[in-house]
Amino acid sequence: MCRVRPVLTFLEPGVAALATALVALDLLGRVEISRNLGLLVLDTAIIGFFALDYLTGLIGAPDKKGYLRTHLVELLSIVPVYQFRALRAVRVVRVLRLVSLVARARRSIAQYFTSHVLTYVVVILCVVIALGSISIYLVERGNSINSFADALWWTVVTVTTVGYGDLSPESTPGRIVAIILMITGVGALAAFTGTVASVILHRSGRNLEEHSQEDPEGNPGDRSPVHPPETPSEGLPEPLPDRLAGEYVRDNPLLAGLSPREIREVLVFIDFIRYRRRR
């Protein structure tokens, strides 16, 4: 169960979005899940997926009753509405399942993008480029844009602020689309470059930290915590008395709020660091 849980969590956003779209189309009358064998099998598989996810979460939860109280949405999403005629006939049951699926999809997608910020930014940038290309193609087709490839080229050039000038909107709706794209596209591109830079710096800092814990020969260094000596006989000064510690606080506001004993401990540790550097 522990090994299955990460896989279910990874697949949950896509499965929840698919289930939401399927039930919404059924409620709108575009499809009939109960009369289409393929869609019915797909809905049954989705219910099985959600049931397995709910079961693994319940088994791994330390507080079973608390899990049942706080995961009612997940419980509603596994109700087999289309597999039983009595439930299928009640429209409110299908509506409730749609609401639970929407809530589940929204939560799982938000959790996924929160832990995958770079993926989220890339998706946003791709959506902006796609919407910009489609919009400019629809309003400028026959003027300066003759094909969707031209629309895509113009959108990328505009978002990246290159501005070759070979293509430009001529109509008023096209210029409105350009203004919107300039504002949203530049913001999305800035978020993308900033996120990529942040990821690179984070990985570089982690590599430097790992290398700093090794000695020049490449062997792991002593990673045990460094403790100051218990006695001042190794070159460290005597602890300050309470009166001098209080006077030291007046000259160092960062130590305000600490007790004299805590101040002495801080000062001893600072002196110990200086002692190690001298060595």
Automatic annotation (TrEMBL):
Region (Disordered): 207-243
Principal subcellular localisation of the protein: membrane
TM ranges: 6-25, 37-55, 117-139, 176-201
SUPFAM superfamilies according to UniProt: Voltage-gated potassium channels
Gene Ontology molecular-function annotations: voltage-gated potassium channel activity
The entry's keywords: Ion channel, Ion transport, Membrane, Transmembrane, Transmembrane helix, Transport
Keyword flag Nuclease: no
Top-level taxon of origin: Bacteria
Compartment list: Membrane
GO biological process: action potential
Name of the protein in question: Potassium channel domain-containing protein
